[in-house]
Amino acid sequence: MDTSVWSLALRRDAPAGQAEVGMLVRALESGETLLTTGLVLQELLQGFAGPKSRAQIVERFSALPIVVPDRDDHIEAAELRNRCRRKGVQIGTIDALLAQLCIRHEVTMLTADHDFTRIAEHTTLKLWAQR
Predict the structure, then answer these.
(1) What SS3 class is residue 50?
(2) How far apart (Å, rounded) are the C-alpha atoms in residues 86 and 127?
(3) How far, in Å, CA of 92 to CA of 67, rounded?
(4) Which residues contact 118 (CB under 8 A, 6 or more apart)?
(5) Residue 9 carries which DSSP code?
(6) Residue-by-residue pLDDT tens, the chain, 131 positions
């Protein structure tokens, strides 16, 4: 079994045929370790209407360990955001925290959100890249 660790920063509007979706399916099928955060779960739940969709998301995410930020993560995320801003890259507060969690835990982020590409250019954030 592969011991790769992936953190998920998913988008509700990602097309089903996207390369990142295929990678996610392969990672799940091969038993790789996947992590997420409560922030990602919350954003997904905010984007769906109806109890059936909500129940499916909650059930599927219950199998994934959730990484919880601590005080230092928030401090480092603010510094990461300031560092990017000094380089001319504007990023959101949540994206900065997600990036910081991946950096601290030394995991590769699997995301379809291209904002993280700009973050990775100015930090040690590792992103999954299609080969």
Answers:
(1) coil
(2) 22
(3) 19
(4) 84, 89, 91
(5) E
(6) 334 455 556 554 555 457 777 777 787 788 888 888 999 888 888 877 788 888 888 888 898 899 999 999 999 999 999 999 999 999 999 999 999 999 999 999 988 888 899 999 999 999 987 65
